[in-house]
Amino acid sequence: MVDFRSYILPTFLALLIHGLVLALLSTHWIDHSEPKRSMPRHIQAQMIDLNALAERQAEQERITQEKAKQAEAAKAKAQREREQAAAEKRRQELERKKAKAEAERKAKQEAERKRQQEIARKREAEQKKKAELAARKKAEAEARKRKAEEQARREAEKAKQEAAERARKEAERREQQAKAEQELQQALERERQARAKAEAAAAARQQSQAVIGDIRSYIQAVLQDSWRIPSTARNGMEAIVTIHLLPSGEVDQAYIAKSSGNAAFDNTAVQAVYRVQSFPRVADVDPILFERQLRKLQVKFKPEGLRW
Amino acid sequence: MVKLNQLLVLALAALMSMSVRAELVVEVTQGVESPTRIAVVPFANDSGLALSEDVADLVQQDLGRSGFFEPMARENMLGFPSRRADVYFRDWRISRMDYVVIGRVENNASGQLNITYELFDVLREESLMTEPLSVPQGGLRDAAHFIADRIFEELTGLKGAFSTQIVYVTAEQLSAGKQRFRLKLADWDGARAQTILESPEPILSPAWSMDGSKLAYVSFETSKPSIYVQHLATGKRERIQSFPGLNGAPAWSPDGNQLALVLSRDGNPEIYVLNLQTRELQRITRHYGIDTEPNWSPDGRSLIFTSDRGGQPQIYRLDLASRNLERLTFEGNYNASGRLTQDGRFLTMVHRSQGGGNGFDIAVQDLKTDRVDILTRSGLAESPSIAPNGSIVIYATQEGTRGVLSAVSLDGRVQFRMPANEGDVREPAWSPYLR
Amino acid sequence: MRVANFTKAVAITSAMILAGCSTTSTTTDGGAAGSANGGQDGAGASSYGANSGGVSAGQVVTREDLNQLQTVFYFDFDKAVVRQQGFADLEAHARYLAQNPTASVRLEGHADERGTREYNMALGERRAKSVERLLMVNGATANQVETVSYGEEKPAMIGHDAAAWGKNRRVELKYLSK
């Protein structure tokens, strides 16, 4: 395998040189032969064409004449005779021409045969000369080839080593690249998965936040309707009530998580929750969301805009 | 790149776990500013006696007049339970009541009446308090005010002022140029009124001592004004040293040892403080304008008074130690008769607004924010006097040609006429907590 | 002729003063009060014209003359300034007191019902005091005059309108001894 490869380049070079020589020789040969060969064929073809055309015309005329003969019955006989004579004359003429053409052709054939003989002779010499040259060239090439082969072998050896090194490096590089590629793919995959997960979570969160936002407004509205702010309330008071809800929205219990410092005020806040009794819309909330955010919630009662 | 992504993922995870852990917080900043609904069920009379008073009705009236409660009319009640077992919370909830009071009156062995009352929280379905009382047969009214006080305190956090009293002055035109003045003492709701002084000459400016045992007032019985101090228990009274000109507007210091008053003995009305033990008289104001109507701050450290030193009557505060003078009122062209609530935060007064015509009304000023709210629209209101718990202001006004007493809650939500009294009524003064 | 002209001038001037007073009282006490006072003052003014003829400067004021003199003097809302049309009569009272050292008067100051009782007490006091001052600058001595304020406690006219209020913002001069 390796040995065969080392001969590729020299062989290719040798073939290239042979090819070039052949191409040069063939050009000479074509230049000489082409005008002589093409001229007679050209004339012959013209004549055959004319003859065929004339026959077709004659036939056509004949048909026309037949027709005319039918039209002019009386004239026809005399004319036929004249025409037979004319036809005979034409036949003779044609034969004469034929004979002449035959003679000419034979002469030409002879000339051609002589010319061909000459060409063959020339070609033989040429080939002999060429073979000698080729042999000489071959010997030279042989020597060059051996030298080149030696050189090539050394170079190939070197190249082989280099190639091996390169290949090793390349393989190494490829391996690394493949590894990096793999790692990148894995990272991308991880990232994609993480992003998908985060997006899903964000979407879920957004969704649940929207729900929670709605529920918050709802609970707020219900409690604002329910809360009776006592006369003793003052701006700035603040009580935080913890509410435990059941999934049905019913108030399980409510108690003060952070007192306002005014027991009566705190009491009204808790009362506001108990007065509501149930927040029915809470029942529509997703159970997981309910568990997370609504089972236990904080309500800050902080009056605003009071007179005092 | 990879690290950044990992960080992002971590951050997201952290955010998610946080949002999971955070509790939902709902903020309620608005509500219904309406009184608390309470049903005071008629007390069962198991004594076998005809009772002189409807205790539950008195409790209901007290609570209703405070402005803090909206009692349920009896005709709307679905039942009259008098024992815990008969209280159906669902029914009261349907009636939209927050609280229910039941009670019963029974005889006891010692010839007195036992009253048992119980307060229920309808929404939480629980009993808040129950208490047996033993009272003489004539003590039903006191018992009713006592029960109202207890309920009021339980539900509002403020001490009830239903067991307090008021004094006021009545005037009758007997014939042309002949009048009869009376100083009267009554329950806060006007019931059980009794005359404690009668005179053909004007009586005015009654003032309670802080312990509720004495009154100071101005009487013209010698055809000149003099300040008297009368002991309520005994009726015994003494005349404070009298000076030429004005002797008026007495006001007890919170410790009961001093009396602020107005004398014009030095030419024009000025504020003085009389030490009741040493009889030492100290002049407080020095101005050619009118200085009158002194009243003590609850801490006794300063006096508020009316002065026209600025051109129109306005209320000022004088720090007794530093003698630092501060004008308190700026809204309106007439502010007088200033009184402070026990917490010192609110100032009630007679007020006439700028360009508001001739109307004199009761106004309250928040000394923290200086916001002024006009509580009445009667046009001729005067002599505001604040209940000791600061929830209600009693004042005198005109109805037809007669003076009557009215009351308004300090927040202006509830306003009511005191029961009709004979003659022309004026100068109400609300007692401190008694007993 | 000259005397007649002078009298006319006095009459016109006093009329102008009256008109001015009416206008002033309208703005300070409200329209109804002002016009009521105007009517009241007009009546007082005619008695002033008659009196000024009877009791002139330097003349002895007799007991009988006292009956002709005005004894009630009216004031504007929240004011203690004696109106000018009362000056001549007050001067006559002062001369009587100066001429009769044993005579003494009591000045009772009053206010209308508007405003607080204690402030009105002070206002009545101030009105009595300003009448007292006018008596004293015209010859009365301090021990001949005592003042008392009834504030709004003793109205001259019962009522809650400008007419009643105008009647009640007053100082009454009462002889304790003549």
TrEMBL record, chain A:
UniProt topology in membrane: Single-pass membrane protein
Molecular function as annotated in GO: toxin transmembrane transporter activity
GO biological process, any: bacteriocin transport
Matching InterPro entries: Tol-Pal_TolA, TonB/TolA_C
Entry keyword set: Cell cycle, Cell division, Membrane, Transmembrane, Transmembrane helix
Transmembrane segments: 7-30
GO cellular component, one term: membrane
Subcellular localization: Membrane
Region of interest called Disordered, as start-end residue ranges on this chain: 59-192
Main location (coarse class): membrane
Gene3D superfamilies: 3.30.1150.10
The name this protein goes by in its record: Cell division and transport-associated protein TolA
Organism the protein comes from: Marinobacterium stanieri
Organism ancestry: Bacteria, Pseudomonadati, Pseudomonadota, Gammaproteobacteria, Oceanospirillales
TrEMBL record, chain B:
Keywords, in A-Z order: Cell cycle, Cell division, Periplasm, Signal
Sequence intervals crossing the membrane: none
Organism: Marinobacterium stanieri
Pfam families in alphabetical order: PD40, TolB_N
Family designation: Belongs to the TolB family.
GO biological process per UniProt: cell division; protein import
Subcellular location: Periplasm
Stated role: Part of the Tol-Pal system, which plays a role in outer membrane invagination during cell division and is important for maintaining outer membrane integrity.
Subunit-structure text: The Tol-Pal system is composed of five core proteins: the inner membrane proteins TolA, TolQ and TolR, the periplasmic protein TolB and the outer membrane protein Pal. They form a network linking the inner and outer membranes and the peptidoglycan layer.
Domain of life according to the entry: Bacteria
Position of the signal peptide: 1-22
InterPro entries documented for this protein: 6-blade_b-propeller_TolB-like (IPR011042), Tol-Pal_TolB (IPR014167), TolB_N (IPR007195), WD40 (IPR011659)
Gene: tolB
GO annotations of cellular component type: periplasmic space
Name of the featured protein: Tol-Pal system protein TolB
TolB N-terminal domain residues: 25-127
Automatic annotation (TrEMBL), chain C:
Keywords from the UniProt entry: Cell cycle, Cell division, Cell outer membrane, Lipoprotein, Membrane, Palmitate, Signal
Any one GO CC term of the record: cell outer membrane
Pfam family, one: OmpA
Membrane topology field: Lipid-anchor
SUPFAM superfamilies attached to this UniProt entry: OmpA-like (SSF103088)
Localization terms from the record: Cell outer membrane
Residue ranges of domain OmpA-like in the record: 62-178
InterPro entries: Bact_OuterMem_StrucFunc (IPR050330), OMP_bac (IPR006664), OmpA-like (IPR006665), OmpA-like_sf (IPR036737), Pal (IPR039001), Pal_lipo_C (IPR014169)
Record-level GO BP terms: cell division
Family: Belongs to the Pal lipoprotein family.
Its biological purpose: Part of the Tol-Pal system, which plays a role in outer membrane invagination during cell division and is important for maintaining outer membrane integrity.
Subunit-level organization: The Tol-Pal system is composed of five core proteins: the inner membrane proteins TolA, TolQ and TolR, the periplasmic protein TolB and the outer membrane protein Pal. They form a network linking the inner and outer membranes and the peptidoglycan layer.
Matches recorded under PANTHER family: LIPOPROTEIN YIAD-RELATED, STATOR ELEMENT OF FLAGELLAR MOTOR COMPLEX
Protein name stated in the entry: Peptidoglycan-associated lipoprotein
